[in-house]
Amino acid sequence: MVFTRIKKAKNKNFMEAVAAGSAMVAFADTMIRPEETSKLLDYARIEESLKVFNPAEIIETFEKYIENFHFDSRVGREKALKAIQKIERSSEEARLVVFVCCAIGSADGEFDNNQRLAVREICRVLGLNPEQFSLDLKAPKPENFPRPAKTATYTKQTTTDNIPEWMKNTSNILPKPGKHEKKTENMPEWMKNPPKIQKQKKSNKPDMPQWMKNPSEIIKQHQENKNIPGWMRKIK
Fold first, then answer.
1. Does the model's pTM come out above 0.70?
2. What angle do CA 24, 25, 26 make, to 5 degrees?
3. Does the structure show a pLDDT above 50 at 54?
4. CA distances from 118 to 57, 177, 208 (A)
5. To the nearest 10°, the Cα dihedral for 35, 41, 46, 50?
């Protein structure tokens, strides 16, 4: 009995770290599944350091950390990492904690990126390299890609309620091919008798200045010196 208590006290931190890490990974996808709890119990039955603990005690510790996450994700994360930090960095126990967390993440058959990121953070706290545990993030599936918004479809309008009457039946307005008879029954009055526009007579002569029309008059004035100033007339 005393030996069991000593062993439990020695392995208390390891059990707390396993339960806290399992809760952190299980809550990463915001849904706690029965497969994850069952996986934790399976590990408790095969791990020597956890056999001294009653399975109900391990589940109770696991649920304690889950309740912290339900209260607030930041509070839950802080308390879980604080329990995990009690494990010696880069030790064999640290590696076991990470392996258990990976098993919890893939218990339901889908180890998604949110759970992988949680385990990567646990690796950082324990001084381990995530690449050693195959924790690369997966590319999203095509069905998870954002779908483009549906474009508006054009429906061809077949109704003729808003079409003027003269557009519905153009046979009375337009002549049939090959016929040049003018039908004027449905034509407006102004189209039947359009106003006549008087054509202006075109003149071939451009609008010439006055002095070009009567050059002889200009020459005569020049000869008589009528337009020469007086002071120029007196100069000899």
1. no
2. 95
3. yes
4. 24, 80, 99
5. 150
Please tell me the total number of residues recorded for the chain in this structure.
236
Q: How far from chain centre, in Å, is Cα 127?
A: 37
* Mean pLDDT score across all residues of the chain: 80
> What span, in angstroms and rounded, lies between the C-alpha atoms of 80 and 150?
44
> Mind listing the domains of the chain with CATH numbers?
2-138 (1.10.3680.10)
Long-range (24+ apart) CB contacts under 8 A made by 133-137 are: 133/98, 133/99, 133/102, 135/102, 137/113
Find the distance separating the first CA and the last CA of the chain, reported in whole Å. Answer: 157
Side-chain-facing half-sphere of 7: CA atoms under 13 Å: 11
pLDDT in tens, 125-161: 999 999 999 998 888 766 665 666 665 555 665 666 6
Q: Express each pLDDT in 164-217 by its tens digit.
A: 776 766 666 555 655 555 556 677 777 777 777 776 666 566 666 666 666 676
55-71 and 34-46 helices cross at what angle (nearest 10)? 140
Mention every residue, 6+ apart, whose C-beta is less than 8 A from residue 81: 20, 24, 121, 122, 125
**Tokens at residue 165, please?**
């009457």
More confident residue, 52 or 213: 52
Amino acid symbol at 189: E
What are the residues whose beta carbons fall under 8 Å from the beta carbon of 104, sequence distance 6 or more? 21, 22, 25, 26, 36, 39, 40
Q: How many C-beta atoms lie closer than 10 Å to residue 96's C-beta?
A: 18
